[in-house]
Amino acid sequence: MLRTDIKGITPELIQAKRRIGQRMVGVYLGVYALFVAVHVFSPDVPGLPCGGVSLGLIGGVTMMLFAVLMALVYHLLCTRVEKRLAPPQEK
Amino acid sequence: MLYEQSQLAVILFLSVVAVVVGVSIQMVRRVTTPAGYFAAGGRIHWGVNGIAFVGDYLSAASFLGISGMIATLGYDGFLYSVGFLSGWIVALFMVAEPLRRMGYFTFTDAIDSTFNSRSLRFVASLCTIVVSIFYLIPQMVGIGSLVTPLFGIPHYIGVLIVGVVVTIVVATSGMVATTYVQFIKGILILVVSVVLTLFMLQRGIMLPEHMQYREHRPLQTLEVEKGEAGYAVLRASEYELAPEWDAAPAYARGFVNVVRNGEVSPWLVEKRRDDGLLLRETQYLERLGDGTLLYNGAPATSGRVFLVGTMEEIVHRGEQVQHTGALGPLEFLRTMYSSRVNIWPHATYLSDKGQMQVFYQRTVPAADMFKPGGMFRLNEGGWSARLDFISLMLALVCGTAALPHILIRYYTVPSQAAARKSTVVAIGGIGFFYILSLFLGFGAMGSGFLNIMDTNMAVPLLARSFGTVLFAIVSAVAFTAVLGTVSGLILAASGAVAHDIMDRLMGIHMSATEKVVAARMSAIVVGCIAVYLGIVFEGMNVSYLAGWAFALAAATNLPALLMALFWQGATSKGIVASMLVGMSSALTLILISPEMYVRYGLLASEAPLPLNNPALIALPLSWVTLVLVSRYTSSTVSPR
After folding, report:
1. Partners of B266 in the beta sheet?
2. Cα B171 off chain centre by
């Protein structure tokens, strides 16, 4: 039961946005895996003092800000692709 | 007095109920079609949907649980926030737009969109129901924690009240009312968190004797002298050592049973000397053989639990102070980091009456709470602790994109771009909340208003340290936090029953109105199940329980969803097998986990596997099953 009532979607557009999504999720999950790996293989590192608090805390907050930044960048890239690949009547 | 009722809190609580029920009844006539009931007609603005996502997602587990975990376990609680938010990246980049493109009302719609398989439809809807019910447990437990101190009523009555209210909301106007309840809730949570954080920073950090509202009390100590006739308690004639105290299980864990007025309580052995012992008061939770919970020897409503969580020594800008005054956000964290704090770890053992959890005070450098160790013993716990940690972080990052109640929200917006934009709004709002929860958690740690036996109350009690008005407001908002999420969960489960199973699978011929009636009936049944589970799981940290729901969602739904959307080689049989293996393995691992053994009244060390979170085993198992079965069956099923 594939939907047929959503307009403005072309296979090229779907492919283009899928590529952006897959690359960006790869980058984010790589950083996330690194964050987890540091805790597993060097549990002392997150506890090291850094800037008056612990390195782990700074790392965690950075991960959160990075997620917000990635979300914004993804949206901008997708919007640009949508404008470029939209069907002629919608441009 | 911990369980003191606040009239304002009761009024706000009842106002929230009146508004929510009023909105739902007002909208009931506008909901006459399945599209209106399940997806609000697909006409919700992306901004409203984004904030509704915030409201949907920031459940009791986040609003109550995360700060509670940070307040008691420190940094390890914060790691949950990192995992929870990261899951949204998977949802945004991989799931949001394809799901909006491929489905109509439910998770099953999207996953079955290219297969049109009856068995897949049945299994996907079954998994939706199981995951939704699992996620309902922490919400209902959270509301029980909240309503008990608010009304002074038992946990089960609180759960029952909420169950009835939420069922009314969902059973009347479905996604329309749920969206607006979640939208209002999302805004309220963010505003209240900002206000509470600002209050806390303005007050700064202080020693307990400087607090305006002070409810903690100094801990009692007992001196025990060794004489010719044996050991005896000095200068406190009402206390005496219990018979055979040194042969009791408590003594092996560092506690001595002391009798007062015929009641036995465990006291921590603070010092051992040649001529005696120095004992310090503890707090203890007894789980009796029949499941009854006693807090310091009595039911929760008797008010024997006392508030803890104080600073022992404050070092501000290199100097020891008693009160810092107003602090900036970074300065607050730095001052906490360099100070000393009183924390309350616990020990568990089996006594002759049942299972005993004893909480005792320890003074530690607060820097210890800024590093792993409160929950995950990554250093001294060996590989079992590390694998458990990996498992949890895997569940959190993979679980969000597989939660049915989150996924159905993508159908409420008019386009794919709107689905994407609303997810970006959600990530911004949720990320902002988690950063605030860091301050709220560490603030609660030294506020003197921490109930160590119910960590879910950390934020409302922190608010109470500023007076009853803020406590009443925060409690009312926390109540809406549960209402909004529970509405979404019941809606997701009722959609699975009425739309996926009754309509599309069983082919029961129903008119549009009859479908809506069927969905409403399903919502009532799911609501009853939620109430029952909320009562059974009383007392557990809601974030911890949510971790299980995430693991179950990740193992059951995520491989199926991603492979159905992106892998041409996936077959319906492969997806069915993957979901069944993911669900059964995750459930089995949860049932034999150390944490569940504690719930059974046994010791955690008796569990066959030292893994508390099942994702590390169940998720890869589900994935491998999907690939293998799809490859094996690819020649026997028609291409999609």
Report:
1. B257
2. 25
- On whether the CB atoms of residues A40 and B355 are closer than 8 A, the answer is no
φ, ψ at B73 (rounded to 5°): -115, -10
**Residue A3 lies inside a defined structural domain of this protein:** no
Map residue B476 onto helix, strand or coil: helix
- In angstroms, the separation between the Cα of residue B93 and the nearest Cα of chain A is 4
pLDDT tens readout for residues A4-31: 445 567 888 888 999 999 999 999 999 9
Residue A29 lies in a domain: yes
- Which of A24, A25, A53 lies closest to B337 in CB terms? A53
Q: How many CB pairs under 8 A join A and B?
A: 143
- Tally the domains of chain A: 1
- Per domain, the residue ranges of chain B are 7-205+382-445+456-633, 209-370
- ipTM of the shown complex: 0.90
B7-205+382-445+456-633: CATH homologous superfamily?
Answer: Sodium/glucose cotransporter (1.20.1730.10)
Q: What is the domain range of residue A27?
A: 19-84
Between the two ends of chain A, the Cα-to-Cα distance in Å is 29
Give the SS3 label for residue B621.
helix
Cβ B89–A28 below 8 Å, yes or no? yes
Cα B329 from Cα B375, distance rounded (Å): 25
Q: pTM for this structure?
A: 0.88
Q: Tell me the residues of chain B between 337 and 376 that have a Cβ less than 8 Å away from chain A.
A: 337-338, 367, 370-373, 376
